Amino acid sequence: MKLFEETVDSKVLFRGRIITLHEDTARLENGALVSREVVEHPGGVCVLALEDDGSVYTVRQWRYPFAQVTEELPAGKLDGPEDHRLAGLRELHEEIGAKPGEFIYLGKLLSSPGFSSEVIHMYLARGLTFTGQELDEDEFLDVVRQPFSTLVERVMAGEITDAKTVACVLKGAEFLRRERGQ
């Protein structure tokens, strides 16, 4: 098997501020034509901000699609072709007011590869200094500080359900475990 689909036609159905939705016609390796709906997204970043004492920061914010408050790591979307490292530094500063002494790339996450092109880049920030939040004018959130071990337990208990936060917390925990040689 080649495991490949060839796009033979693409039609934009919606173009918004953040996403573009298009419907494609793709040819499968057996020659059959199928319809594919794709949400184009510029991508994003999330940051696990870790203090020397082992505490981390999350943000609580209203998420309109779910009509509820979620708790997540500091995060945001890329502005066009923006470098994801710079976007991570920007979001960390905007949302919790921190600048890191060390900024470690933990990898990327394909948030929903069945229909979306969104790629989220994950970072671990250490050696934090605080200069004050600079929230966007349409951004309202509460910052929560808690022990990293508590956040890991909350992820494992299903209390934290945001995919990028779950992935970054678990990748961060494994990175730190390996760093300690365990």
What does the model show?
- This protein has 182 residues and is an alpha+beta fold.
- It is built from 3 helices and 12 strands.
- It has 2 domains: 6-40, no CATH class; 44-179, Alpha-Beta Complex (Nucleoside Triphosphate Pyrophosphohydrolase).
- It has helices at 84-96, 148-156, 163-179, and strands at residues 6-15, 20-27, 33-40, 44-49, 55-63, 68-72, 75-77, 98-99, 102-110, 119-126, 129-130, 142-147.
- A 4-stranded mixed sheet has the order 7-4-10-9, sandwiched between helices.
- Strand 5 and strand 6 form a beta hairpin.
CATH topology descriptor of the largest domain = Nucleoside Triphosphate Pyrophosphohydrolase
The CATH class designation of the largest domain is: Alpha Beta
Low-pLDDT runs of 5+ residues are: none
Mean pLDDT: 97
Structural class, by secondary structure, is: alpha+beta
Shape: globular
The sequence of SSEs as H and E is EEEEEEEHEEEEEHH
Q: Kindly, what is the distance between the CA atoms of the first and last residues, rounded to a whole number of angstroms? A: 40 Å
Sketch the major β-sheet.
4 strands, mixed
CATH superfamily of the largest domain: Nucleoside Triphosphate Pyrophosphohydrolase
Going by CATH, the architecture of the largest domain would be Alpha-Beta Complex
Q: Please bin the fraction of helical residues.
A: 10-25%
How many domains? The number is: 2
Strand content: 35-45%
Number of helices: 3
Radius of gyration over all CA atoms, rounded:
19 Å
Total beta strand runs: 12
